[in-house]
């Protein structure tokens, strides 16, 4: 298994390049302003703005320590992301299952933690990236038309759960750590999406949904649903 667990704290590794470029720009701009012969009062508002931008990048790429609190994790589906539930409905899923599934969608704003966690324990059986558009991530058509990556996980009980990371109007980079054949578990990072974006989770019919539209959820902490109590679906 590719280990991207929560031992990584502070700044998410995916943000190191962005933060380095932002720091170089911050230093360069303010050195020019404060060392310029034209230096004046206007340099201080620029310093404040650039300091705010740097602070936002550090905030955006934060990497909080998370651990799912329940000991019994069998049949539990946990939110893979921080954000707001925007969809809970039965849909046709053509990319992998070819049948009806329960879809639960979590929309992440630019203020959400953008690390993604695995929603269930199990074994990864499929990983696929699909190019597409960049509609606003909260729109329903984003699930089928936007650039996206999907990961299908088989749980120990035999259920297949699919997680789809979806790029948004601002998010142009979807990072997925998964590889077919890997084992995965709650508390481990599945990937990262830069800036506003969305994650869909597809569950078998008969799953007990535990959230509702408009509800705020936390990745690796909030229970989205409980899988049907049966084996080898």
What would your notes on this structure say?
This protein is α+β, with helices and mostly antiparallel strands. 18% of the residues lie in helices and 34% in strands. It is built from 3 helices and 16 strands. Strands 11-7-8-9-13-5-4-15 form an 8-stranded antiparallel sheet. The radius of gyration is 20 Å and the shape is elongated.
Can you describe this structure in just a few lines?
The protein has 233 residues and is α+β, with helices and mostly antiparallel strands. It contains three helices and 16 strands.
- Helical stretch count? 3
Strand order of the largest sheet: 11-7-8-9-13-5-4-15
Strand residue content: 25-35%
Helix content: 10-25%
Terminal CA distance reads: 24 Å
Q: Average pLDDT, to the nearest integer?
A: 83
Regions with pLDDT < 50 over 5+ consecutive residues? 1-8
The gross shape turns out to be elongated
How many strand elements? 16
Question: How would you spell out the order of helices and strands?
Answer: EHHEEEEEEHEEEEEEEEE
Class inferred from helices and paired strands: alpha+beta
How big is the Rg?
20 Å
Major sheet attributes: 8 strands, antiparallel
């Amino acid at each position: 298994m590719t280990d991207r667990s929560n031992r990584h704290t502070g700044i998410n590794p995916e943000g190191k390049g962005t933060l380095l470029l932002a720091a170089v720009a911050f230093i360069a701009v303010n050195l020019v302003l404060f060392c310029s012969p034209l230096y004046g009062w206007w340099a201080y508002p620029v310093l404040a703005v650039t300091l705010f931008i740097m602070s936002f990048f550090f905030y955006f790429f934060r990497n909080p320590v998370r651990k799912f609190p329940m000991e019994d994790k069998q049949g539990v589906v946990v939110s893979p992301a921080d954000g707001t539930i925007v969809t809970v409905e039965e849909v046709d899923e053509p990319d992998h299952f070819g049948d009806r599934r329960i879809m639960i969608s979590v929309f992440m704003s630019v203020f959400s933690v953008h690390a993604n966690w695995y929603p269930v324990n199990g074994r990864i059986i499929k990983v696929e990236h699909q190019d597409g558009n960049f509609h606003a991530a909260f729109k329903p058509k984003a699930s089928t038309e936007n650039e996206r990556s999907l990961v299908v996980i088989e749980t120990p009980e035999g259920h297949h759960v699919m997680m789809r990371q979806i790029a948004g109007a601002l998010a142009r980079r979807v990072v997925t750590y998964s590889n077919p054949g890997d084992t995965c578990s709650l508390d481990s990072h599945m990937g990262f999406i830069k800036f506003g974006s969305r994650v869909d989770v597809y569950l078998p019919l008969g799953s007990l949904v535990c959230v509702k539209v408009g509800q705020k959820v936390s990745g690796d902490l909030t229970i989205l649903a409980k899988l049907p109590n049966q084996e080898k679906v």
